[in-house]
Amino acid sequence: MIRDIKKVKDAARMTAEVSTASSRLTVHFTRLLLLACLLVLPMAVNAEEKGAEPASVAAASALAAPDAPAAEAAVEAAVELAPEAAAVPEEPQKVDPVLNTGDTAWMLVCAALVLFMVPGLALFYGGMVRQKNVLSTMMHSFVAMGIVGVQWAVLGYSLAFGSDLGLGMVGDFSKVMLKGLISFEDGVPVYALFQNVGTNPSAVPEYVFAMFQGMFAIITVALISGALAERIKFSAYCLFVLLWTTLVYDPLAHWVWMGEGWLFKMGALDFAGGAVVHLSSGISSLVVLYFLGKRHGFPTERMAPHSLPLTLLGVGVLWFGWFGFNAGSAIAGANTPDAAGGLAALAFTTTTIAPAAAGLTWMFAEWIHAGKPSALGFGSGVVAGLVVITPAAGFVQPGAAIIMGIIGGLACYMGIMLKAKLKYDDSLDAFGVHGIGGTVGALLTGVFATVGATGLLSGNGGQFVTQVIAVVAVAAYAVVVTLVIAFILDKTIGLRVEKDDEIRGLDQTQHSESAYN
Amino acid sequence: MKLIEAIIKPFKLDEVKDALNEIGIEGITVSEVKGYGRQKGHTELYRGAEYVVDFIPKVKIEIAVADELVAKAVATIEETAKTGRIGDGKIFILPLEEAVRIRTGEKGDEAI
Fold first, then answer.
1. What kind of architecture, by CATH, is found in domain B2-111?
2. CA–CA separation, B70 and B3 (whole Å)
3. Residue A429 sits at the chain B interface (C-beta within 8 Å)
C-alpha cells in the first residue's frame, strides 16, 4: 500500500515536471492527481489501523456493557440526596464521587472555550454580511449569550439534565434555578458532584458540568442566525432564541445525552452534538427561512461578504473553541471516568485532523470546479470538517477522521453549490454547513466508530440503523416544533423588518448604530 | 493655466507623484475613485454566488499647472503611469480660468 502511494507521488512529480512545459490540461490533471493522493492516503492509513484494531475493539467491548452507565445517573449531592437517583444497571462496587481537581480545571477551561466559540461565530458570520448589517449579525450571536445564559440557569439545565419526566422525552423541574448544585452543612457550602462512571470516584462539581452544557445551548441557537441574517427583526429573533432553546434544544439534549433519554438508551452515538447541535440548528434554519423569505434584491443584487478577514479570524476562533467543545465532551464518554484523559486526547486529535482534511478538500474541490481556491472556501471547509467530526470525535481513529473530513468537505461544498442553483436564500449557509455536515457526521459515526462503540465497518450494521433513526427523529422533531414557533412569531409580531429598513440596513434601523465610522 | 486630471492605477500613484515632484510640480490633489472604461469589470465568486464587479478602483490626480509646464507634466504622467496593459487610465486636460492662494490672495500662475 505504501509503495503504491510512493508510485502515485512519483507519478505526480513527473506529471508536474511535464506540465511546466505544456498546457492547462496537464495542470488540471495534476490537480486531480493531488486530489487522488488526498483520497488514497487516508485509506492507506485506515488499512494500517485495521491490523491493530481487533485487539483494541475487543478491549473496548470487554469494558462496554450493553447499556453504558448513564452519563448523568450518578450525580449526587454529597449531602442528603438519595444515594441512587437512577441506579446503574450493573453496580458491583459503586463508589462515592470524589472531586478530581485535574478534571475540574480542564472542564472549567473547556466551558470557557465553548463560550469563546460564540464571538468566533459572530466574527465568522459578521464578515460575510454586507457592511450595513455587520453589527446586527454579530448581535445575533452575542444576544444568545445573554438570553440562553439566563434561560439555562432558570429552566434549560433542568429540562435537559433534570430527572426524566417520562418516556425519555424531557427533564423535570427538579433543577430549576440550578437547585441542588450547592447546599449547606452547618453553614459550610457543599457542592454537588457530577460523576460520570458510578464505579469510579472521579468527579467534577456539577456547576462545571452544567455550565459546560449551557455553552452548547448558547452556540447552537446562534448557529441558526446565519440563515436569518440581514432581514430578521431583532425582537422576533430574541423571542425565537428563547422559545427555540426551551422547546427544541433542551428536549433534544435530554433525548441524546441524558442517561434516561430515549435515544441515549437506544444507543445513538453523538459525542459532542452532531445531531443535537448541528443537525437540529441547520434544519431549523430552513424552516424559519420558509416563513422569512429571501433578502430584498436576492439573488440579483451584489451581496458579497464585506470583510473576509473577519470571517477567517472567526474560523480560527471557532476551531480553537471547538477543542473545548469536542475534547471536553469526554466528560460524558461511555466508561470514561477521566474528563482529561485519553478519550479527550483522541477527540482533540480528530478535531485537529478532520477540519484540516475538510478545508483542503473544499479548497481543491473549488479549485477544480470553479477555477480558484478561495479563502472563504477554505474557511468554510474547516467549519464543515469541525461539524462533521463533532458527533464522532471520541468514537473514531485518525484515519477515519481524515476520511470523514474529506466526505464532509465534499458534501457541504456540493450542498452549497446546490443552494446557489436552487436560489433559496440561506444567507450564510447555516443549513449548507451545519444541517448537511451534522447529518453526514451523525451517519458516518455509525460507519466508522471503533472506539468505545462499533460501526458498520466493524461489522455492526445495527449502529448505523440507530444513527439513521436518531437523525430522522431529531430532524423531524426540530422541523415540527420550529414550524410552530416560526408560524406563531410570524403571525403575531412578524419575523421580518420593513422593506425600507432592510434596505437601509439592520445596524441603523434595529440598533441605531453603524459599525464603521 | 491648465487643470490636468489623470485617472491611473492605484499602485502607480507613488511613482507618478515622485516624478511630478522632480519636474517641479509642487502640489497635487488625489482622490480614490471607481469606474470602468473599455477594460470593464471582473467577476467574484463567493460560495457559488457570482457577482460582476463593474467598477474598478482607480486613483484620480488633479494638478493645476502653468501653460509652459503642461506638455512636460502630461508626458511625465504618461511615462510613469504606463504599464502597457489594459486599464492604465486616461489623462484629461482642461482650461483653468483662475487660481487663488487663500492665505495670501495671490492669483494666477503665482497661486499654483
1. 2-Layer Sandwich (3.30)
2. 9
3. yes
C-alpha cell at A127: 464578515
How many of the other CB atoms lie within 10 Å of CB of A465? 12
What is A396-447 written as a DSSP string? S-HHHHHHHHHHHHHHHHHHHHHHHHHT---TT-IIIIIIHHHHHHHHHHHH
Whether residue A114 has pLDDT greater than 90: yes
Per-residue pLDDT tens over the stretch A124-150: 999 999 999 999 999 999 999 999 999
The whole-angstrom separation of Cα A464 and Cα A458 is 11
* A507 close contact with B: CB closer than 8 A: no
Task: Tell me the average pLDDT of chain A.
Answer: 88
Q: Is the pLDDT of residue A234 over 70?
A: yes
Q: Taking the complete model, does pTM exceed 0.80, yes or no?
A: yes
How is residue A153 annotated by DSSP?
A: I
In terms of C-beta density within 10 A (0-12 exposed, 13-18 middle, 19 or more buried), how is residue B67 classed? exposed
A174-208 tens-digit pLDDT: 999 999 999 999 999 999 999 999 999 999 999 99
Partner-chain contact B46 A376, CB within 8 Å:
yes
- Span between the terminal Cα atoms of chain B, in Å: 9
